[in-house]
Description:
Blueprint: E1 5-8, H1 14-23, E2 27-31, H2 42-50, E3 57-62, H3 67-76, E4 81-84, H4 90-94, E5 100-105, H5 112-118, E6 124-128, E7 155-157, H6 166-173, E8 177-180, E9 185-187, E10 190-191, H7 193-204
Parallel strand pairs: 1-2, 1-8, 2-3, 3-4, 4-5, 5-6, 6-7, 7-8
Antiparallel strand pairs: 9-10
Amino acid sequence: xxxxxxxxxxxxxxxxxxxxxxxxxxxxxxxxxxxxxxxxxxxxxxxxxxxxxxxxxxxxxxxxxxxxxxxxxxxxxxxxxxxxxxxxxxxxxxxxxxxxxxxxxxxxxxxxxxxxxxxxxxxxxxxxxxxxxxxxxxxxxxxxxxxxxxxxxxxxxxxxxxxxxxxxxxxxxxxxxxxxxxxxxxxxxxxxxxxxxxxxxxxxxxx
Length: 207
């Protein structure tokens, strides 16, 4: 199995983006969703991106955002990938001409094979816990046994991951990547360098 990629999401400060990169993260996530405690504006995002070393991906996260707002962010920032965390259709995700991943909240009876067919252009499916009324970032874990084998779209595992459980999660689900936010924080939106290092180390130890 190829190594599992790592995304540290919800970066709100340049120093935290740098911490993630120095620890070995492949990508950081910037949240453009005003209801999130990890939301950033374009100016803050620019300062975070400017502090990153080369070859670190930058993912922009949106939740049922207006096309004009997404276009504004996309035109202002060198985002590597777009992440749609709401009820966007495949057509909604495709109009920006950028690679994208589609988040799936793992509610009961979710059919990932059907979702995969409905988003054929997605670069990946990000699987997150389902909590009514919330669009992600809950810090909760879903039942990893509900992920079927043989999906053709790369899977990014999210939802309540931390250094304590990520190795077991990878061993069970064999995802392309893992995504963590609250599990490496000291406060919402404030990343902890030591927790990031522990998380990255735990991922890298999985063979």
